[in-house]
Amino acid sequence: NAGVTQTPKFQVLKTGQSMTLQCAQDMNHNSMYWYRQDPGMGLRLIYYSASEGTTDKGEVPNGYNVSRLNKREFSLRLESAAPSQTSVYFCASSEAVEWEGDTQYFGPGTRLTVL
Amino acid sequence: AQSVTQLDSQVPVFEEAPVELRCNYSSSVSVYLFWYVQYPNQGLQLLLKYLSGSTLVKGINGFEAEFNKSQTSFHLRKPSVHISDTAEYFCAFTGGGNKLTFGTGTQLKVEL
């Protein structure tokens, strides 16, 4: 099992450009998440999908959109990138739907720089 | 609003010495508590978690944590660290229908 995979690993964008970060999991998990990690701020939830066909905003959703393409895939789109979106982005998944004690499994991350 | 505090942003320690990484949370409801580890240039992985029952939780790589409800703490300990334990450690918790909330992380640097 590959677990959670993310593409690309690295990306440099210019302000105003758009891009989509891809995430896939092969663990048959119901829930998937997108986080951003910034120095000294820990991980902050951008969007999540509790089950196929549903998505909800997290703590910092502004400037992002998501698509739960199917049970395996959950993409994050930046429509018009800004320097404030320079960050490391992590995708995660968990087995249960809305069970708070569930373990989340993380991908290796995408390092995004917006110039 | 719930929050989690990791007071120490960096903890240097010599190899084979004991270490404690501190975590305090703020919540008015029952909580589930987690410690995740992030090795350089990797994603996070679960070290251990507390759901219920015994307040002393054992995890991978010789780490353990103790849940203290009265002090709202969940400190992580290891009696003897190794160079390979150098990583960033995140405390996190959920409860009351809220999503996972992460602390700001503690960088553990193990020196020879």
Question: How does this structure look, described?
Answer:
The complex is a heterodimer of chains A (115) and B (112). Chain A is mostly beta strands and 115 residues long. Chain A contains no helices and 11 strands. In chain A, strands 2, 4, 5, 6, 9, 10 and 11 form a 7-stranded mixed β-sheet that branches. A 4-stranded antiparallel β-sheet of chain A has the order 1-3-8-7, with no helix packed on it. Chain B is mostly beta strands and 112 residues long. Chain B has no helices and 12 strands. Chain B has strands at 3-5, 10-14, 19-21, 24-26, 32-38, 44-50, 56-58, 64-68, 73-78, 87-95, 98-102, 106-111. In chain B, the strands form 3 sheets. In chain B, strands 2, 5, 6, 10, 11 and 12 form a 6-stranded mixed β-sheet that branches. In chain B, a hairpin with a 5-residue loop joins strand 5 and strand 6. Chain B is globular. Chain B starts with a strand and ends with a strand. The interface between A and B is medium-sized, with 20 and 23 residues.
Question: What is the helix tally of chain B?
Answer: 0
Shape of chain B: globular
Helix fraction of chain B by DSSP (H/I, runs of at least 4): under 10%
Residues in β-strands, percent of chain A: over 45%
How large a portion of the residues of chain B is in β-strands, by DSSP E? Answer: over 45%
Number of strands of chain A: 11
Structural category of chain A: mainly beta
Fraction of residues in helix of chain A? under 10%
What are the salient characteristics of this protein?
heterodimer; A: 115 residues; mainly beta; seven-stranded mixed sheet; 11 strands; globular; B: 112 residues; four-stranded antiparallel sheet
Produce the secondary structure layout:
The complex is a heterodimer of chains A (115) and B (112).
Chain A: E1 4-7, E2 10-13, E3 19-25, E4 31-37, E5 43-49, E6 56-57, E7 64-68, E8 74-78, E9 87-94, E10 105-106, E11 110-114
Chain B: E1 3-5, E2 10-14, E3 19-21, E4 24-26, E5 32-38, E6 44-50, E7 56-58, E8 64-68, E9 73-78, E10 87-95, E11 98-102, E12 106-111
Parallel strand pairs in B: 2-12
Antiparallel strand pairs in B: 1-4, 3-9, 5-6, 5-10, 7-8, 8-9, 10-11, 10-12
